[in-house]
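Weekly modeling sync, notes
Attendees: S.R. (lead), two postdocs, one rotation student

Agenda item 3: backlog of single-chain predictions. S.R. asked that every request posted to the team notebook include the full sequence so nobody has to chase files. The rotation student volunteered to paste the first one in as an example of the format we agreed on. Action items at the bottom.

Example entry:
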Amino acid sequence: MVAALTATSTSVWQPVSLEEARALKKELDGVSRFIAGGTLMQMQREQGIAFPPHLISLERIRELADIEETVDRSIRIGALTDLETCRTHSLIKRKCPVLGKAAGTIASPAVRNRGTLGGNILYGVGDAIPILLALDARLSWFCEGGIQSEPLAGFVDRKEAPEEGAILTDIIIPSPVKGRCFFHKVGRREAFIPSVVTVAMYVEVTGSNTVKMIRMAVGGGVNTPMRLKECEEMVSGKQLTDGFMSGLASRIKKESALIGDVFASADYRRTVAANLLVRELQSVL
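Predicted structure, as returned to the notebook:
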């Protein structure tokens, strides 16, 4: 145990293995939280949410910050990889540059140097989630019975870890990425801000402008990111025409069901998301 972090005598524990971290969480059940970059918890503290009595730091578990290409050519990104590394890492630049672009739009440089990709996912409304959904990313968790893997979409739908005390270890992006990838974030200012609307898409189109494969995702603000599966089914296998695009825009607005807040109305968010996705599909043609 190290020195207290706050005036309320929060203690920070620093396990060196996943097994030790999970054992600590079980021992300190109900009075502890895992912490990595800590940017979200710092924001919550500034909003008046106190730290728990115990924080279990994962920063000394170094394998959680690795980035590597696996034997099947997928990209494995450790959950503790900071967002700035995601933006600049040579493997990501070479194999999946759209993810680097997305990471570069999140928060400020200071936050990106501390905030982790895993933390952005566990936040539940993180701006990295839409592009990871579009890339069909998978998550790996360290659970009581060992490592469990699931599609990111499963966690997003469930909004919680697969079991109490589970530790997110890796984000896996299938590779090679054969199609065209698109990501766009709309905010109230140029940078350093939460998103109003975030959209992402992966699409493969044949020579006859027929959609072979497509994944579309939306999010932004307080909205939980989601795949637009009805829209994907509507587009898959279809030849893209101007009339078809008009109908698709209406379907995107309906299925996205983005809600509004004090910064942007629901209709604005839905319209922007539809316009961005349809415009990108048109550019593919």
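Discussion: group reviewed the output briefly. The two ends are 59 Å apart (CA to CA).
Action items: rotation student to repeat for the remaining queue; S.R. to check formatting next week.
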